Amino acid sequence: MTAAPGRRSSTFTRLLRHGFTDASAAERLLDSVELAPLRDDPVLLEALGATADPDLALLGLVRLLEAQPNPGARRELLDTLIAAKPLRDRLLGVLGASTALADHLTRHPEDWQALVTYESRDLHPGVEEFEAGLAGATDPVSLRVAYRRCLLSIAARDVCGTTGVAESAAELADLATATLRAALALAEEAAPEDAALCRLAVIAMGKCGGHELNYVSDVDVIFVGEAAEGADETKAIRAATRLASHMMRICSETTVEGSIWPVDANLRPEGRNGPLVRTLSSHLAYYQRWAKTWEFQALLKARPVAGDLDLGEEYVAAVQPLVWKAAERENFVADVQKMRRRVVENIPAAEVDRQLKLGPGGLRDVEFAVQLLQLVHGRADTSLRSGTTLDALKALAAGGYVGRADAAQLDEAYRFLRSMEHRIQLFRLRRTHLVPEDEAELRRIGRSLGLRADPVADLHREWRRHATVVRRLHEKLFYRPLLDAVAQLATGEARLSAEAARERLVALGYDDPASALRHLEALASGVTRKAAIQRTLLPVMLGWFADSADPDAGLLNFRKVSDALGKTPWYLRLLRDEGAAAQNLARVLSAGRLAPDLLMRAPEAVALLGDGDGGGLEPRSRAHLEQEILAAVNRADGAAQAVTAARGVRRRELFRTAAVDIVGSYGTEEQPAEADQGALVDRVGAAVSDLTAATLAGTLRAVVRDGWGEDLPTRFAIIGMGRFGGHELGYGSDADVLFVHEPRDGVEEREASQAAGKVVSEMRRLLQLPSADPPLLIDADLRPEGKSGPLVRTLTSYEAYYRRWSLTWESHALLRAAPVAGDEDLGRRFIELIDPLRYPADGLADEAVREIRRLKARMESERLPRGADPKLHAKLGPGGLSDVEWTVQLLQLRHGSAEPGLRTTRTREALAAARAAGLITDEDAAILDEAWVLATRVRNAVMLVRGRAGDTFPTDSRELAAVGRYLGYGPGHVGDMLDAYRRTARRARAVVEELFYGVAER
């Protein structure tokens, strides 16, 4: 038909005004024969313009009219459409929101009549009404047709706003219940002999069990079977399994009418590896002995829906007591949170920002938080035992377990996110939780949610706003009520009872909930700025403390730091404004004793945890440290004051080193844990060694200046030995050294030696004086003649001794010698003196090799502490530090003269050089390196956790768990850590047996 002049532009404009995006195509459709009677009807245009996608709705209407079997049917549809507003809104609303349902109506053009009725019972159908709607289905194909017809009515009420998202989700779950019953009836009809043998109950889980199903979702189920009276149990369970399998196929398989949805039974005991159907007693046996925390969390939503409902009720009644004891399990909260993190980590990187369900701030965050609180408090409060997320959230708020304002914001966010999810899935009836990127799809979703001004921009804004609310609240939800319970600021707000607060703290891992509540009260009560900021910080900090092995210590230490610094404005500003500072502090305060002890001696060091002027967590260079210490020494009045200043710098830098090590080992929300364990070890070794060297340099300067002015009568150098010389010091290591001096011109040797001796004695005294700073112990036992020899010698004396008396063990010890402080030229000449000893030109004689092996074997048998488990001794045990280091050092002694790369004091560098020189295979080198790094990490962990040095794993369970967390093992995995250590050490010992003890000569 040809439009009159001017009509096209007028219609075109009207169509654009009514929300059509392709007005030309819409105009052609309106001119079609099917719509001829309504071409100029304003009611139709108004109704189309009210839909989510007017273009899609118009196209669907034309297709539906074309599909009508005869003109009479077409006329009936058009007449009803114009006369009945409920039908008009429902039908066009569905056609504008779902191409899949438009396709269904095209295939079954009479099904539009399912939308005509407008009775009150039609507005809120339940299982009974849906069962009636499916009653005519006699096979899987007709069941699909009937299912889609029922789905059509749910979608129509949903898109028109007749029902809200919670009601729609409940209706979808009721339709799923009716469908499972119909499918099971078809399966039983196909195998009546199986049906006669058994009782089979279908338990809905997940969103179906929770009465909050999506449009397209797997329907999670568990099957429980029992023998019918007089039947053999084995045969009955086989029959039940066949029925259950057939029922699943009826729902899941694709036919000419598509599929309904997959039925997923993987939440059953043992998952897909377990039997599909179990007896009730078999279920209970599994849950009582083997079930993991997440399985009890899943059982929150268990609901009998089909088959033998009496058996289903027996199942639910039997497992419910186990569900409500789940919070008493060790590491309960950590297990649930770990499961949530694992879900997020498994999201492909390209999808994280589009994930409506699983991503940060998504639906799962709300569901996990609510379920966690239900499991903790549902033991005592039966009002919380709902499988429906929003009902449970409402009950939590009513009981004071969640703040009412927080609950209201979460409720609003959850409803919005679920509405988005429904609209996304409804379009093609496909299972997806990804927000589309196509602008037309986003426009349709936005309009369907009532965002008409700028649908795409408004949708993004609202989605991000609600996701931000969820991200902010989902953990706060757990911790905020604890503060409200003690701070007592809000009026008219239901609060946690003392018992509920205790339950929650115990679930979080607090051993002493009464003390924890006292700390929270001290931190959060009052109307001061300090209390207000701490109330803001504490919900997230409590979560970080709970993520550690010792939440009690973390909270106590935070109170101590806040008591010390709470009145200083920079401290609160640091925690509030610098994102990383608060989490870094929480990690440091709850990881063990060493770092908090160092911090408490000078709490202002907390500034290092931020990103500002404190220098952050980047370790300082040796030159920078020495410059600061020497400047402090020069300003001091006397040696004692100068060394006190140097020790203060050392304490602060030890804290910085421990903090960066802890944060790197634990990771933060922004930065994952350091994957390269060797890098963590090297960083600590370098930082502590540089710090020790700088402290010795400053102490030497202070002692010399105090006793002799600017110049000592003798040149003086300090040679680092052992781990100090190897740049591998740990937190608890002594400083192994040699002292060497050389009289200045015109100074008698006796005078020079006396001066050097006084310097050494005074340095050792000052560095060990009792004070708030940790002592630095100087160990000179590796000197010639050991403890019997003089503490300090001239270079000439060293030369004479090494020429005449040096033993093999001394050459061995000198492999780690390196100048660390004092006269650089003297230190260099000392190294030139000892190089021929430690890197002999002809290598080692066989007798010397045998002597080193004898020494090593004797050390293993004599020095291992009585009662210690050798396999877990990080220093002297098989495959420990001593094994690796002596093996590497034997290679250095034998080949150092010929291989320059071996001439290093550092174990890992020497090992890499040996591999490069072909003296050890790549595989063996990797095994030794892994063992050395792990053993070093264990020793560092023990010092960080216990506050004192140790070479074995702690026996205290909490300390052992803290070592595990430092090494990357989550709660409940201490056994895995010990097994991994033994395995690593065992492999290293096999290499040591071959390379060091000569099982196979290299």
Quick structural summary:
This protein is mainly alpha-helical. Helices cover 61% and strands 5% of the residues. Helix 25 packs parallel to helix 27, helix 31 packs parallel to helix 33 (677-708) and helix 41 (907-916) packs antiparallel against helix 42 (922-946).
The main β sheet shows up as: 5 strands, mixed
Helix content: 55-70%
Strand content: 5-15%
Query: Would you count the extended β strands for me?
Result: 10
How far do the termini sit from each other? 97 Å
Oligomer: single chain
| Uncertain regions spanning at least 5 consecutive residues | 1-7
Which word captures the global form?
A: elongated
Task: Count up the helices.
Answer: 44
Derived from helix and strand composition plus strand pairing, the structural class reads mainly alpha
* Radius of gyration based on Cα positions: 38 Å
Mean pLDDT comes to 91
Can you offer a commentary on this structure?
The chain has 44 helices and ten strands. Strands 1, 2, 3, 4 and 5 form a five-stranded mixed beta sheet that branches. Strands 6, 7, 8, 9 and 10 form a five-stranded mixed beta sheet that branches. Strand 2 (219-227), helix 14 and strand 3 (263-264) form a beta-alpha-beta unit. The longest helix is centred in the middle third of the chain and has 33 residues, at 455-487.
Summary tags:
10 strands; five-stranded mixed sheet; 1002 residues; 5% strand; mainly alpha
Question: Strands, helices and their partners?
Answer:
Elements lengths: L6 H11 L5 H8 L11 H8 L4 H14 L3 H13 L1 H11 L3 H9 L12 H4 L3 H8 L5 H20 L5 H26 L1 H6 E7 L1 H4 L9 E9 L5 H20 L10 E2 L12 E2 L1 H10 L3 H7 L3 E5 L1 H15 L8 H14 L17 H15 L11 H10 L5 H25 L10 H10 L6 H33 L10 H11 L4 H12 L4 H18 L4 H15 L3 H9 L1 H12 L3 H7 L21 H14 L3 H28 L10 H32 L5 E7 L1 H4 L9 E9 L5 H20 L9 E2 L12 E3 H10 L3 H6 L4 E5 L1 H15 L7 H18 L17 H15 L11 H10 L5 H25 L10 H10 L7 H22 L7
Parallel strand pairs: 2-3, 2-4, 7-8, 7-9
Antiparallel strand pairs: 1-2, 1-5, 6-7, 6-10
Helix pairs in contact: 1-2, 2-4, 4-6, 4-7, 5-6, 6-10, 9-11, 10-11, 11-14, 15-17, 18-19, 19-20, 19-23, 20-21, 21-23, 22-23, 23-24, 23-25, 23-26, 24-25, 25-27, 26-27, 26-29, 27-29, 28-29, 29-32, 30-32, 31-32, 31-33, 32-33, 33-35, 33-42, 40-41, 41-42, 42-43, 42-44
